């Protein structure tokens, strides 16, 4: 499916960064504030959706940012119509997770680690008054993923520097910066410091991912008509959800098993061994280095 140049220009002219706004969380209120950067409209939801839902259930404030608009992330459609579709998808997922969602108007596949983008990321972290910042690692198969990691790393420390982006007040304390999980091994493999059981919110995460059909069911940029035919149709929602659950249960179980020692350390032996589904994170050295007590304050789930 080819998209006319007029459609692309029309989309660029009339869209801007959008979000599900909640005026009640515009200022710090004693609750934790977490901002997650994913490269495309699905990455933050895939990597941190369960932990985000747990924070939100406790009244903490979580913002999931898609740094690009995802406008080439499909095998059959592209441009403005796809960007609008994927924006609607992550907004629907956010309503289920209890989070805020924002999609930046940067073309998919064209993100670069420029000074302009570093300033943009820095401002978003400051405006959110973030305690925790999560992103991809800067070693990944997709250039947008890599550059999100680079940009967020480059914003670390700079968020506290008064005369960098002086139009937005600096943070008084550098947040804790975390990497979300991946399976890449060079230059070094992901090494989790934190593992969160998402067993209690697994169905919530599934329901949120269900709202991302362009990726979850249609295969995104690497999909095909054959792939779509292999997935249960919309007319059979029970089978469709069972198909999704099988895949995500396997994925989150594998993550739990890889971090079993971390789960046992954080939850205790009995509970740690019983966790079926987990999301895991690695501490980035460029942010604050949390103590054990601080880590438990930021992740108030381990004593549940």
Give a verbal description of the structure.
With 304 residues, this protein is an alpha/beta fold. The chain has a single domain, classed as Rossmann fold. It is built from twelve helices and eight strands. An eight-stranded mixed β-sheet has the order 1-4-3-2-5-6-8-7, sandwiched between helices. The longest helix is centred in the last third of the chain and has 22 residues. The N terminus is likely disordered.
Record the SSE blueprint.
Blueprint: H1 5-14, E1 18-19, E2 33-38, H2 43-57, E3 61-66, H3 79-97, E4 100-103, H4 115-127, E5 132-135, H5 143-155, E6 176-180, E7 194-197, H6 202-210, H7 213-216, H8 225-230, H9 237-258, H10 260-267, H11 269-274, E8 278-283, H12 292-298
Parallel strand pairs: 2-3, 2-5, 3-4, 5-6
Antiparallel strand pairs: 1-4, 6-8, 7-8
Helix pairs in contact: 2-3, 2-6, 3-6, 4-5, 6-9
**Assigned CATH architecture:** 3-Layer(aba) Sandwich
Assign the structural class, choosing from mainly alpha, mainly beta, alpha/beta, alpha+beta, or little secondary structure.
Answer: alpha/beta
Sheet-strand content, in percent, reads: 5-15%
Q: Give the CA-based shape.
A: globular
Low-pLDDT parts are 1-25
* CATH superfamily caption: LmbE-like
The span between the termini is 50 Å
Quick check: average pLDDT?
A: 92
What is the total tally of β strands? 8
CATH structural fold name: Rossmann fold
Largest sheet: 8 strands, mixed
The tally of structural domains comes to 1
| Element order: H for helix, E for strand | HEEHEHEHEHEEHHHHHHEH
| Radius of gyration, CA atoms, in whole angstroms | 19 Å
- Tally of DSSP helical segments: 12
CATH class: Alpha Beta
Order of strands in the sheet with most strands: 1-4-3-2-5-6-8-7
Helix content: 40-55%
């Amino acid at each position: 499916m080819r998209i006319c140049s007029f459609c692309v220009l029309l989309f660029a002219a009339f869209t801007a960064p959008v979000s599900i706004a909640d005026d009640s969380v515009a200022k710090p209120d004693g609750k934790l504030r977490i901002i997650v950067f994913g490269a495309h409209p699905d990455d933050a939801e895939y990597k941190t959706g369960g932990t985000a839902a747990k924070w939100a259930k406790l009244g903490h404030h979580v913002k999931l940012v898609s740094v690009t608009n995802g406008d080439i992330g499909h095998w059959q459609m592209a441009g403005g119509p796809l960007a609008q579709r994927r924006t609607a998808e992550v907004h629907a997922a956010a309503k289920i997770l209890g989070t805020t969602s924002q999609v930046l108007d940067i073309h998919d596949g064209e993100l670069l680690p420029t000074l302009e983008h570093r300033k943009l990321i820095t401002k978003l972290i400051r405006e959110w008054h973030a305690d925790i910042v999560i992103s991809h690692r800067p070693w990944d198969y997709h250039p947008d993923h890599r550059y999100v990691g680079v940009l967020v790393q480059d914003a670390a420390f700079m968020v506290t520097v008064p005369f960098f982006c002086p139009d937005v007040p600096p943070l008084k304390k550098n947040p804790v910066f975390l990497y979300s999980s991946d399976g890449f091994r060079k230059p070094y493999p992901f090494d989790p410091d934190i593992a969160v059981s998402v067993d209690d919110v697994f169905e919530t995460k599934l329901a949120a991912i269900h709202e991302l059909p362009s990726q979850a069911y249609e295969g995104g940029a690497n999909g095909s008509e054959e792939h779509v035919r292999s997935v249960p149709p919309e007319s059979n929602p029970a089978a469709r959800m069972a198909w999704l659950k099988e895949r995500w249960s396997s994925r989150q179980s594998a993550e739990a098993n890889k971090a079993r020692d971390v789960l046992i350390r954080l939850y205790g032996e009995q509970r740690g061994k019983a966790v079926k589904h987990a999301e895991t994170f690695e501490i980035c050295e460029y942010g604050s280095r949390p103590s054990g007590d601080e880590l438990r304050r930021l992740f108030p789930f381990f004593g549940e």
